[in-house]
Amino acid sequence: MALFVLTVLSLCLPVWSAVKVVQPYKVVSSNGTALVQCFLHPQFFHHQSPLPNNDLSYPFPEPEDLRVTLLRGLHGSTKICSSILNLTGPIETGEEGEVQCSAQRREGALELTVSGLRATDTDLYRCDIEIFYPPPYLRFTGNGTLIHILGSADCPAPGAQRQISNKEDEGEEDEDEETAAPVSVLVIVLVILVLFVLIIIMYLQASQCDRGRREIIRPVHTVDAAACKNLA
């Protein structure tokens, strides 16, 4: 009995290990939405026709109902989101959450659209494919894709934006103060010059008045002296 079980396992393991999920190395997202392609190799839609170059064919019945789950980390089991896909009809459902997944079959791959990602979600993600129907139940996990979400440098956090705006306001205030300082000094200098000119003008006018008075007084004294001599 033990020999029979070992024989069956030895026959099944090569078939099981022949199926694998291949993912792209890196995906870059700039708007919080990433597109991850999960290639099931050998591709299951080729199993009914022979493949060239002696390639392996998909060893199981073509799947109809399956679920694609996105796992975070190289060896972790943290589920980020999942999507159930029916390949024979338009049925496609996804779980509600902060991060959402939507799966579809396109160009020989199961294409998973992941939305609601943030810059802090940058990490390695693996496709976990579960096939429910037809039997047997199968589960395959991919090698992982690095999803890089841009936005930490281009779109700073609200606190950082406030700090930047405060610094800009402070810079504008400093510039205003710097421009106001030369203007105030120039006004003061002009006021001093005007006052100095006014003082000079007032001094000249006073000098002219003194000279005029002296010139008026001198003829009077001369006339008085001549009258005195005549009377004598």
Automatic annotation (TrEMBL):
Q: Composition bias, kind Acidic residues: at what positions?
A: 169-178
Classify the source by domain of life. Answer: Eukaryota
Topological type in the membrane = Single-pass type I membrane protein
Its main subcellular localisation, reduced to a broad class, is membrane
**Which segment of the chain is annotated as a signal peptide?**
1-18
User: What InterPro entries does the annotation carry?
Assistant: CTLA4/CD28, Ig-like_dom_sf, Ig-like_fold
Sorted keywords for this record are:
Disulfide bond, Glycoprotein, Immunoglobulin domain, Membrane, Signal, Transmembrane, Transmembrane helix
Q: Does the keyword DNA-binding apply?
A: no
Q: Name a single GO cellular component.
A: membrane
What sections of the protein cross the membrane?
A: 183-204
Region ranges (Disordered): 157-178
Q: Localized where?
A: Membrane
Task: List the PANTHER family.
Answer: CYTOTOXIC T-LYMPHOCYTE PROTEIN, CYTOTOXIC T-LYMPHOCYTE PROTEIN 4
Q: What is this protein called?
A: Cytotoxic T-lymphocyte protein 4
Q: Which organism is it from?
A: Pagothenia borchgrevinki (Bald rockcod)
